[in-house]
Amino acid sequence: MRKSIVFLIVGMLVFSGFGAVAFSTHEKIDTEKFKKTSFFVSFSYPEVNDVGDFVKVDIKEANTYLSYPGTPMLPCYSVVKSFSLGTKIVDVRCTTSEPLEIKLSKKVFVNSQPQWLTTGFLMKKSEVNLPLYKSEGSYPNAWYSYSTGGGIEKGEHVTFLSFHFNPVRCFSDGETLQYVDHMEVEVTYEEPPSLMVSSDEYSLIVIAPSVFSKYLQPLVSHKNECNLSTKLVTLNEIYSGEYFPIEGRDDAEKIKYFIKDAVEQWGTIYVLLVGSVDKLPIRKTWIGDEMSLITDLYYADLFFSDGSFCSWDSNNNGLYGEFSHNGCNDLVDLYPDVYVGRLPCRYVFDVKTVVDKIINYEKTASQGDWFNNLILCGGDTFPGWGVYEGEVTNNYVAESMSDFNHVKLWTSDDSFNRDTINNAINTGAGFLEYSGHGYQNGFGTYPPNGNERIEYFTRDLFGLSNGYRLPIMFFDACLTGEVDCTIGELLGLDFIRIPFPNFAWSVVRLRGGGAIASVGSTRVAYTNVDEDGPHAGAGYLALHFFKSYYKGVGLGEMLVGAKNDYLNNVYKDPFTVEEFILLGDPSLRVGGFYEK
After folding, report:
1. CA-based R_g, the chain, Å
2. How far is CA 160 from the centre of its chain?
3. How many domains does the chain have?
4. pLDDT for residue 318
5. CATH code where residue 245 lies
6. 444 and 568 together in one domain
7. Closest CA to 158 of 306, 342, 362
8. Which residue has the higher pLDDT, 2 or 166?
9. How confident is residue 70, by pLDDT bands cut at 50, 70 and 90?
10. If residue 237 lies in a helix (H) or strand (E), which one and from where to where?
11. Considering the domain boundaries, does residue 11 fall inside one?
């Protein structure tokens, strides 16, 4: 199964990265109906570097590489334009400079396969010298491509238009390059007749079973006191049509239609789901013929780029988010249109605990220097693959958070273990980023070129006593966010259906310490990391989660910012953007509401 899914996923991963290049824009009205915008992109002469049996090609302005396995690793660049949601892209035209050629002494370095963050075995190293593509001509076959999507960006509903430029192409002999030094793009578009959202009645909607209502009221009051207009809505009120007409074939679809109406009529931008998946449903989706996912992105992705409703079941067969599933592909936008998080509480005790933590965090986080600590945990995720993938990812995260104090807990210097992790968390930290293998009940990674994992499990959380000095944790790993986990699954006894709290949730629901929120994967995950950093998968999403941080940002904005970057600059990879979910309050003010 894993092999078939790997090839399915990597088939989607054509573009990756984020960066900057010189360009200029201007707008002019062509007619009363259409507008135009244009921009110019220039590129330096390609740099060719010898790497043994191959050469690597770079362009100074490019921000990523084409990463499809078995094809030349070539530089590329992405540009993203944002318009009002509902804008129609009428026409796109791109002109290039005259292409020039370069003859190489060796073939261009060829992409290997992405790596599974699996739990049960070490994968064998993939050979780098995979065969080149079989087609004649050049790779890639076009100088540019573009895609559109409807999403949310800094609280505004937008239509994304993302361009992917390929300034260098390689001929099928692998030893001839063709390049251009500039491109000019002209976009013709039509703006929507009116804004979709004009109200700002309730910025935050808390959705929960009625049994939790009483215990969520302190949170609602706290948010309103902090000038975030908030309303609690019970599932019974949604299912009975208390506020909006009932639409949808099942409970999950009824909730999604309610959120759509709340966005359009109340101006809602944050949705906090409170309840375990047996109390408040999560959507199951289908990737390939052998794998299904579960995701709350279903509730967040409401609109296509033209503003129409995105049901995730365009063929109306009752199977949602199908991608190459039995020959079916649902039309799914994937861009979040609202910031969604879940507190998968099963008991009132959990609700009371997390509500208390959220309120105290937002009131006190800015009052201590502990928030300025960033804990980075990693090691040699795939021994023998050439780099220490977890530590490489940690380093790139550290560079993106340069104003923080970096606490690096690595297997390469023997600082990664249960006691050092607990000590670092107990000292207090604003964030923790872990990169490596993961399980439903913990995580673990390898020492350099080792074969025995160093692990941290749910039981080790009892060593935490950090009080309200609570970090936000991102687990760049498999399964830590599997919110439908059971004891039977852990024991290999499928007939035992007793729910088991996954690790990413366990650290949030922990009383007296732990985390304020976490991001984890609901299923197995993969990554693509080399010495130049993460290019796709979990590692890329983790890095861009931290790149989305700024003082006063909302937590949901960080994860949505990372997913927008992924969709705009890598590709529309449903596997990665669906399976990583936020276990926490999306409206949480990172670092607290109050200034020091």
Report:
1. 24
2. 16
3. 3
4. 93
5. 3.40.50.10390
6. yes
7. 306
8. 166
9. confident
10. helix 235-239
11. yes
